[in-house]
TrEMBL record:
It comes from Rhodamnia argentea. This is Cellulose synthase-like protein E6. UDP-alpha-D-glucose binds at E119, D148. The active site is at D148, D456. It is a multi-pass membrane protein. It is found in: Endomembrane system. The chain crosses the membrane at residues 27-47, 59-77, 526-546, 558-576, 656-677, 689-709, 715-737. Keywords: Cell wall biogenesis/degradation, Glycosyltransferase, Membrane, Transferase, Transmembrane, Transmembrane helix. One of its GO terms (biological process) is cellulose biosynthetic process. InterPro entries: Cellulose_synth (IPR005150), Nucleotide-diphossugar_trans (IPR029044). The keyword Cell wall biogenesis/degradation applies. It holds the Pfam family Cellulose_synt. Mn(2+) binds at K292, D316. GO terms for cellular component: Golgi membrane.
Length: 738
């Protein structure tokens, strides 16, 4: 088939995608890296030569500083592994259409939602609608919504969306609407805009339909139940008739809401509609459900019964498509005659559409997206990030890559075209049952891995180890947009979950340094360690921000005299590292202010989220506690949204994380003031004072919230109390010992 189609033209023999190396500041970067490495060595020599003798004051602090600096140095080396050979990918979707338009493979889109309270159904169906209206033959497109909340409300929202799609999809096609999430589209385009003027009446009518739908869904959410008359109309609701059905305890529910197989499901202008399926896999209290990984695996099986497409796109429920051609772009990587057969997955970056200008919570992974992931892509070993990723079904299902075997690329994806809907639903329910996975390889060799909170990263690693390659594709125009956490609490909870999961991988048998030999280039394996080691990185960081200030109070000097040659490497590393990271951030489009905010968030994350993640992971591996998957809520009160938009940090939260943020800030402030009063401007202590001063400067929003602000985003009284006590105790210990 491939040969035949190539002869049909479309730039015969030309590749479907091109990989270009990014040149640029190559030499400059090497000089920079060599300088830093030299300075790091110099610092280590200084530490070992000047270590106080046993019994001398401050010996333990010196040892700690030495260890911390060695660890920072090694970590820094691993961060350089992802700054060596960046590449950029260019797919050619015109060539794809010319060569393969009639043989395009079927594509299944998975959308996962977990809870109607945290993830409002109105938002979820906007994402579903954006997936249904991809610029792709509808008979080859199927959209699956997995509802781990098992909620009739979500099912109701999906029914509403299926009705609205009959109007929305033709509207999108006629007016080339972008983005195709109605929520995002109507929020972005106002009724006096160019788009509205061009479409006229139809625009207003469509918006009215959308708003009515949204209103009905939100009303049902508020009431907490589906309207009676709707329940009677659709037999699907009978699944919820039994009063024992709850979120954690219910049978499998599979409903084919739109059956796009035969061509009798059409939109308002008579064009075919994509298939749309609702799934709530069986949940039983005695049966581990394995969170999102379990839901993904159920989706893989259910879709194999219904549409069995060879390509799978998975999206989080808040991540809508901002580009209706993304499927075609991704297929270029899979279908390239030369290199496509080995591609396991194509990862798109995670972008957000509610980032404020100076990004106070450092949500935007600018440098990560623009630089680090590009490099991993350069090694053809990009990580799987859990959303915005196209998979080849066979590689996700655990198949080994083999050069000799033809890929399973049948266009005849709808294997059971003539089966009745009822029959398909019954069969699909069986594979969504808890018992189906018992004693099987699901979650082990097949599908998404279980038992590790960063299930996506470990799954990606295992696919790479089976011989597949992966591509990272970062188009100029963002392909998928999600919702970024808009409070500090949410952001830290998310990072705690990530860093814990990644550290679990590091200490598991899937550590990329141990496995992957021969499959993943060494540079990429080192690159993975940057993220897998987030959690333990908290220990040297905590030491570095807590011990030097206490030593200042005690009069123990930890850095060389300003003006001595030993001071040079410290100054050099400090200045070069910060200048470089500032330049990197600005070159990726961040404002200098956003960079400054990112440094604060790095400090806060490393000393709180990463530390608690480390503690949890260690306890967990000792068998003390279980992993818990904390869901990040996507709803926000007006109050928090207003603060977020004004870029005022929100410290309202009672967790230990907030106590440690405030304690560290207070400790540094007390010690800096105390040290200045006691020692004055002693050059022996300049290094420590500069360090303390910087920490205090970075923490200025914390002091602002502690002492000046009076709104609801301040620290809770109990948090303030605890942190004052803790910081004072630490200072007193320092003074008493000194
Ligand atoms: C989304 O797509 C639009 C084009 O429809 C583009 O202008 C924009 O830059 C993209 N990204 C965001 C964040 O809006
Ligand atoms: C969930 C959430 O906070 N969404 C917000 C994203 O940002 C836009 C504008 O900045 C707000 O309108 C949304 O409410």
């Amino acid at each position: 088939m491939a040969v035949e189609s190539r002869e049909r033209g479309g730039g015969q023999g030309l590749p479907l995608f091109e990989t270009k190396k990014l040149g640029g500041a190559r030499i400059g970067h090497k000089v920079f890296a060599a300088t830093i490495l030299g300075c790091l060595g110099w610092i280590w020599v200084y530490r070992s030569l000047h270590l106080p003798r046993p019994g001398e004051k401050g010996r333990w602090a010196w040892v700690g500083m030495f260890v911390a600096e060695v660890l920072f140095g090694l970590y820094w080396v691993s961060t350089q592994s992802v700054r060596w050979n960046a590449v950029c990918q260019y797919p050619f979707k015109e060539r794809l259409s010319q060569r393969y338009e009639n043989d395009l493979p079927a594509v299944d889109v998975f959308v996962c939602t977990a809870d109607p309270e945290a993830e409002p159904p109105a938002m979820v169906v906007s994402t579903v609608l954006s997936a249904m209206s991809f610029n792709y033959p509808p008979e080859k497109l199927s959209v699956y919504l997995s509802d781990d909340g098992g909620s009739a409300l979500t099912f109701y929202a999906l029914l509403e969306a299926s009705k609205f799609s009959k109007r929305w999809i033709p509207f999108c096609k006629k007016f080339k609407v972008e983005p195709r999430s109605p929520g995002a589209y109507f929020a972005r385009h106002s009724d006096v805009g160019r788009e509205a003027a061009a479409a006229g009446e139809e625009w207003f009518a469509t918006r009215k339909l959308y708003e009515d739908m949204k209103h009905r869904i939100e009303e049902a959410m508020e009431r907490g139940s589906v309207p009676m008359e709707v329940k009677e109309q659709h037999e699907g609701f009978s699944e919820w008739n039994n009063p024992t059905v709850t979120k954690r305890d219910h049978q499998s529910i599979v409903k084919i809401v739109i059956d796009g197989r035969q061509g009798d499901a059409v939109d308002d202008v008579g064009c075919r509609l994509p298939t749309l399926v609702y799934l709530a896999r069986e949940k039983r209290p005695q049966c581990p459900h394995n969170f999102k990984a379990g839901s993904m695996n159920a989706l893989i099986r259910v879709s194999s019964v219904i549409s069995n497409a060879p390509v799978i796109l998975n999206l989080d429920c808040d991540m809508y498509s901002n580009n209706s051609d993304s499927i075609r772009d991704a297929l270029c990587f899979f279908m390239d005659e030369e290199r496509g057969h080995q591609m396991g997955f194509v990862q798109y970056p995670q972008n957000f559409d509610n980032i404020t200008k100076n990004d106070i919570y450092f949500n935007f992974f600018r440098v990560f997206n623009e630089i680090e992931l590009r490099e991993m892509g350069g090694y053809e070993a990009a990580p799987y990030c859990g959303t915005g990723c196209f998979h080849r079904r066979e590689s996700l299902c655990g198949r080994q890559y083999s050069r000799d075997r033809e890929p399973e690329w049948s266009c005849e994806a709808r294997t059971r075209r003539d089966e009745t809907v009822e029959r398909l639903e019954e069969d699909a329910k069986l594979v969504a049952d808890c018992s189906y996975e018992k004693g099987s390889q699901w979650g082990k060799e097949m599908g998404v891995s279980y038992g590790i909170a960063a299930e996506d990263v470990v799954t990606g690693l295992r696919i790479l180890c089976r011989g597949w390659r992966s591509v990272y594709y970062n188009p100029k125009r963002e392909a998928f947009l999600g919702v970024a956490p808009n409070t500090l609490d949410l952001s830290l909870v998310q990072y705690k979950r990530w860093s814990e999961g990644m550290f679990q991988i590091f200490i598991s048998r899937y550590c990329p340094l141990a496995i992957g030999h021969g499959h993943i280039p060494f540079g990429a394996r080192l690159g993975y360690c940057i993220y897998l080691l987030w959690a333990p990185l908290s220990l040297p960081t905590l030491f570095y921000v807590a011990v030097p200030p206490v030593c200042l109070l005690r009069g123990v000097s930890l850095f060389p005299l300003v003006g001595s040659p030993w001071f040079v490497p410290f100054a050099c590393v400090f200045l070069a590292r910060n200048a470089y990271s500032l330049a990197e951030a600005v070159s990726c489009g961040a404002t200098p202010r956003a960079w400054w905010n990112s440094q604060r968030m790095l400090l806060i994350r490393r000393t709180t989220a990463f530390f608690f993640a480390f503690a949890d992971a260690v306890l967990n591996s000792l068998g003390v506690s279980q992993i818990a998957f904390d869901l990040t809520a996507k709803v926000a009160t007006e109050d928090t949204v207003a603060r977020y938009e004004k870029e005022i940090m929100d410290f309202s939260g009672s967790s230990m994380m907030f106590v440690s943020i405030a304690t560290l800030a207070l400790l540094n402030l007390f010690c800096l003031v105390g040290g200045l009063m006691k020692l004055g401007m002693d050059f022996k202590f300049t290094g420590q004072m500069v360090l303390g001063g910087l920490v205090v400067l970075l923490n200025s929003p914390v002091y602002h919230a502690l002492f000046i602000r009076r709104d609801k985003g301040c620290f809770l009284a109990s948090v303030v109390f605890k942190s004052f006590v803790l910081a004072s105790v630490a200072c007193s210990i320092g003074i008493l010992m000194g």
